[in-house]
Design brief:
The complex is a heterodimer. Chain A contains 10 helices and 14 strands. Chain A has 2 domains: 238 residues, no CATH class; 82 residues, Pectate Lyase C-like, CATH 2.160.20. By secondary structure, chain A is of the alpha/beta class. In chain A, strands 1, 3, 5, 6, 8, 9, 11, 12 and 14 form a 9-stranded parallel beta sheet that branches. Chain A has a 5-stranded parallel beta sheet with strand order 2-4-7-10-13, with no helix packed on it. By secondary structure, chain B is α/β, with parallel strands linked by helices. Chain B has 2 domains: 219 residues, 3-Layer(aba) Sandwich (Rossmann fold); 66 residues, Alpha-Beta Plaits (2-Layer Sandwich), CATH 3.30.70. Chain B has 11 helices and 14 strands. Chain B has a 6-stranded mixed beta sheet with strand order 6-7-8-3-9-10, with helices on both faces. Chain B has a 4-stranded antiparallel beta sheet with strand order 2-1-4-5, covered by helices on one side. A 4-stranded antiparallel beta sheet of chain B has the order 12-13-11-14. In chain B, a hairpin with a 1-residue loop joins strand 9 and strand 10. The chains are: A alpha/beta, B alpha/beta. At the A-B interface, helix 1, helix 4 and helix 10 of A face helix 2, strand 6 and helix 3 of B.
């Protein structure tokens, strides 16, 4: 394959995109909304949650008793150090809890670390490195770090933002590819192009390359903008800069290009069967479904919000791309285009 | 040179072209005539290696069609004007031609010169930087024709080069093709414009899925209609019809619109004898000419339409 021929085709397509107001608006506005407007709205609840949980609590514990490796049910505890203790349905006041489990209890003026706390009422407590933190009601309590619920919410929100960002390389090709393939077909400009001494592969690579370059260019620019936006808006409150993390890096460097290719190749296949740019765009929209599925599974907690599910999902998309590419190559040849494309 | 041997193409069960046998010499302008659906466009597409043939074979300048690497060579030495101009409307005329010149591998220093030469010949140089979308249909067709020649091809396939053009634009295109014909390249034209084909082409083929006749327009007229001498006298011709009928070589002598019409195998040799016989019989001859059958007459006779 002669790359110079593919580049000539790609440059021509990009020149055409630059003259098309609708494509320009899509390339500029969509990433702008996702990378600037969305993070601005998005970080507000994160900041609100973080502020709520950082009220300083001053504890003055006076420990008089130590309990280890026991289970306490319906107990009343004052000034006790609990290590490896299971507390159920009890009242705990002015205590220090470590490596313990607290369930259905009322805890006041205590310090709890490296423990699991569930469905309890926590008033004026200092909490750190909780392994489980669910269904609790907090009053004037302070998380030093490791608030698992809050951290999970933050992680989920940042990851959802990434998924929305990945809509950019999926959506832009539905517009650009529709014009590039269906537009040429409707305009009957494919025949003179196919009469030149280029190969089918050079033509496919050239046309796909222009769409890929434009879509991924917009995606990566919006990735940088949204990372900066999130860090600038949340950093001072969180005390650290949350992005980019491993999830984002895999998403932007692997999943986004893979989804972009899926969108382009799907549009090549769609182009062989439709004669209207807008119909092509609408059908091409089905490509967002895998991303939405991944998003819903993340929200529902079926998939964890860690880097591994993202990596596995990206690999699945790359494998799917390979299958779609084989199908697209069968459809995208001179004979098929001139004889069978309706 | 283009040579086809039993070339055919089917689309599912429908025969578009069958058993096509043609030979177009180097530097010849060859016209392909036929009704809609006769297989003209399919023929061009097969010869330009755009689609594959179902049967037979063909060569273009010695390269076999639809066989690698020959197909790539053929595409690099032929220019194609499809039925529709198929230009990039948002780009300028210059950018359209430049794009195709690059794809054909025209060198930088040749490209600009070639584009200027073509646009000047087609009277579009002044508008070279304007988007094609602002052009009339005729102007777009001219740009598409320029595109077919932008890489200085040895063989050019033109599908309806003047379709939908006004007389002035048609004239410009014809002049352009006549000028390029002098450069010795082979030009293969599909057209419905019989008059245009007659003026431009050295030879023509009339086809309806397969070739019905091949030859120069004059040859075809003679082959299918024979040759007829028209004689106008200053007196009524009825009295002189028998004079000519008495000559042994005059096969069919008749009167039409007050003129005498005589079918002859060889008018150049027989006309002086007829004139002499008429003069001897006292006829006063005003003029003697040949009744010319048009290409349309030949076409209609072969395709099955009504002939005037």
């Amino acid at each position: 394959m002669r790359m110079e021929k593919a580049i000539i085709i790609a440059k021509k397509d990009i020149a055409e995109f630059a003259k098309n107001r609708y494509i320009l608006m899509t390339i500029v506005l969509l990433p702008l909304i996702i990378s600037v407007v969305l993070p601005s709205i998005y970080v507000l609840p994160i900041n609100a949650l973080s502020k709520q949980s950082t009220k300083p609590v001053d504890l003055n514990l006076s420990i008089t008793l130590k309990l280890n490796n026991t289970t306490l049910t319906n107990a009343v505890l004052f000034g006790t150090e609990l290590d490896h203790v299971t507390v159920i349905g009890s009242v705990v006041q002015g205590c220090l809890l470590r490596n313990s489990t607290v369930t259905n209890s009322t805890v006041t003026g205590s310090r709890i670390g490296y423990s699991a706390v569930k469905t309890s009422i926590l008033t004026r407590c200092v909490l750190f490195n909780l392994t489980t933190d669910s269904g609790n009601v907090l009053h004037e309590s302070q998380y030093l770090n490791g608030n698992t619920d809050l951290e999970r919410v933050k992680t989920l929100m940042f990851n959802l933002l990434l998924i929305l960002l990945i809509m950019t390389p999926v959506t832009i090709p539905t517009v650009t590819a529709s014009y590039s393939f269906v537009g040429e077909k409707v305009n009957k400009s494919l025949e003179p192009l196919l009469a030149t001494p280029i190969t089918d592969m050079e033509l496919l690579v050239g046309k796909s390359g222009s769409i890929f370059a434009v879509s991924m260019g917009a995606t990566w620019i919006s990735f940088v903008i949204s990372t900066v936006m999130v860090d600038v808006l949340t950093g001072p409150i969180l005390g650290y800069y949350p992005l980019p993390n491993a999830y984002w890096i895999i998403g932007v460097l692997l999943l986004a290009p893979a989804m972009c290719m899926m969108s382009i190749l799907t549009n090549v296949i769609i182009s062989s069967r439709v004669n209207d740019v807008r119909v092509s765009q609408q059908i091409g929209g089905v490509v967002v479904l895998p991303v939405l599925l991944f998003l819903f599974l993340s929200i529902a907690g079926v998939l964890s919000t860690g880097a591994l599910p993202m990596l596995l999902f990206s690999i699945v998309v790359v494998a799917a791309d390979a299958g779609i590419l084989l199908l697209a190559l069968r459809i995208f040849n001179r004979e098929e285009i001139l004889v069978s494309w309706k | 040179m283009i040579e086809t041997k039993g070339l055919g193409r089917k689309f599912d069960d429908k025969v578009a072209v069958e058993d096509l046998n043609l030979r177009v010499e180097d530097g010849e302008v060859f016209g392909l005539l036929g009704p809609n659906g006769a297989g003209k466009t399919t023929t061009i597409r097969m010869l330009a290696c755009l689609i594959k043939q179902s049967s037979g074979t063909a060569t273009v300048n010695g390269y076999e069609i639809n066989k690698e690497p020959d197909s790539s060579f053929i595409r690099s030495i032929v220019g194609v004007l499809p039925e529709s101009p198929g230009l990039y409307d948002s780009l300028s005329a210059n950018r359209n031609l430049e794009f195709f010149a690059r794809l054909y591998g025209v060198k930088d220093y040749e490209r600009e010169k070639r584009i200027e030469e073509l646009l000047r010949m087609l009277e579009l140089w002044e508008r070279r930087e304007e988007p094609v979308a602002t052009f009339s249909k005729g102007m777009k067709q001219k740009i598409a024709i320029a595109r077919a020649f932008v890489h200085d091809p040895q063989v050019v396939f033109l599908d309806e080069p003047t379709a939908g053009l006004d007389p002035q634009a048609s004239h410009t295109v014809r002049e352009f093709l006549l000028a390029l014909r002098k450069e010795g390249r082979t030009i293969f034209i599909n057209s419905h414009h019989l008059d245009e084909v007659e003026r431009l082409c050295d030879r023509i083929a009339i086809m309806n899925t397969s070739v019905l006749a091949v030859g120069s327009p004059q040859e075809l007229a003679r082959r299918y209609w024979g040759r007829t001498t028209v004689i106008e006298l200053s007196q009524p011709v009825q009295g002189f019809l028998e004079v000519v009928r008495s000559l042994p070589f005059a096969s069919k002598v008749r009167e039409e619109d007050g003129k005498m019409l005589v079918d002859l195998d060889d008018p150049e040799e027989r006309n002086p004898t007829i004139i002499e016989a008429l003069s001897r019989a006292g006829a006063k001859i005003e003029y003697v000419t040949e009744f010319k059958r048009s290409l349309e007459d030949v076409y209609m006779k072969l395709i099955g339409g009504e002939v005037r």
